[in-house]
């Protein structure tokens, strides 16, 4: 009887509620929904590597990627093809690409982007798998000499024959994502959360005091493919936890910690 | 069964924050206190010392200098949270019992702190099998006169020993071996990547044919006013769904065959 109750409890969270939807067409390409920031303070870069060439050592025709940019409301603002160079590293200056379409004036200082590889090595569909871009974004803040790197880790969005669809899951019940991190005093924290589902989603971010300070709760509606930034400046005497609540299966935030001229970026 | 190491490298002090609350509310609702342990290797034996109890809902940060008297220089301080007590001494690495989640895994904050800034990532360190390998494509090098780039190769295994292995560094484009270094199990092995002559368009490959390691790429300015740390994904992360281990095996077989010593 206890096992039946446990199964019913588990099913409320798992029945037809996968983290990501598996595409039906094996020629589908998958990408994370990366966050771009571009302003007088922030620059964003992407480390582009020809993933397909890592699977095959024969000479292949040049591959390319489609980079698709969305504004914070999830609307497509730019699409570019970039030719890949086999087994080399290409640093794509995302901010420069966006500046050509006047992003700040038209589209604001934050949004998302996805990267779809043109070539699918034969071995991948044979393994019932899909090529996935979960690569590395770097951010530069003010005059810092170094960029701070963060990897992608979510199957968020797909492209198949020029059709773009989100593949992130959503559930029936509101779920909590507890960031296992202490937001220590003396810094500003900006938590970027993307919506990889196909519906607009409400996301609540509760900053819960660990050591003094008031509870701070922020609620945002995030469009499909869009992003919202939840921020808090933590008094030097205080510290906080961050708890995200929504019907998205995964509301793992991208965390920017800013301390005067210094910064760090990491995934929750 | 994961540990949370304190990264104490290159004169930058390490810190690790442990959290006693699950990362989500739908895979595990654990709400009891957890033991905090420090495990370290000394005299070919694993030693574990109880540091206290972490109440539910609490976080606690430990700094590397707290354990200088206990942990021999060069050994990794391994923190853990456990529902069960760990043996004080053992010949196999103790298995802390932590509540299970996978979306995401139960994580800690692993960070490095200088006088002016910190860099961290949310992670954990699994116990690696005695046999394994590493293939890491690493586009993290940053360039400038005052910038230094390192790979920190972190390994923990069951056996309380420092078994040697060899790491090879290649340029992915021509697959020419640029150098090799000896590394050891149960260590944080540090290799400076600026020594291999990479330029801004090169894709470095870090490989080890007989040891699994976590590759952390750490860049810093010489004065440590700016720092960045991140790990590469395992090759299986280049695909999703299906037989991801099969994809990883395919890439590793191909590259280990092509990369000539």
Structure description:
The complex is a heterodimer of chains A (268) and B (261). In chain A, a hairpin with a 2-residue loop joins strand 11 (157-160) and strand 12 (163-166). Chain A is mainly beta. Chain A folds into two domains: 29-166, Hypothetical Protein Tm1070, Chain: A, CATH 2.60.290; 170-267, Hypothetical Protein Tm1070, Chain: A (Sandwich), CATH 2.60.290. Helices cover 12% and strands 49% of the residues of chain A. Chain A is globular, with a radius of gyration of 20 Å. The model of chain A has no long low-confidence stretch (mean pLDDT 91). Chain A has helices spanning 2-14, 51-55, 94-99, 103-107, 123-126, and strands spanning 29-31, 34-37, 42-48, 64-71, 76-83, 90-93, 110-117, 130-133, 136-141, 148-151, 157-160, 163-166, 170-184, 188-194, 201-209, 216-222, 227-233, 239-248, 254-259, 262-267. In chain A, the strands form five sheets. Chain A has a four-stranded mixed β-sheet, with no helix packed on it. A four-stranded antiparallel β-sheet of chain A has the order 2-7-4-5. Chain A contains five helices and 20 strands. Chain B has 261 residues and is mainly β. Chain B has two domains: 4-123, no CATH class; 134-258, Hypothetical Protein Tm1070, Chain: A. Chain B has one helix and 18 strands. In chain B, the strands form four sheets. A five-stranded antiparallel β-sheet of chain B has the order 1-6-3-4-7, with no helix packed on it. Chain B has a four-stranded antiparallel β-sheet with strand order 5-2-8-9, with no helix packed on it. Chain B has a four-stranded antiparallel β-sheet with strand order 10-15-12-13, covered by helices on one side. The longest helix of chain B has 15 residues, at 244-258. Chain B is globular, with a radius of gyration of 19 Å. The relative contact order of chain B is 0.18. Classes of the chains: A mainly beta (268), B mainly beta (261).
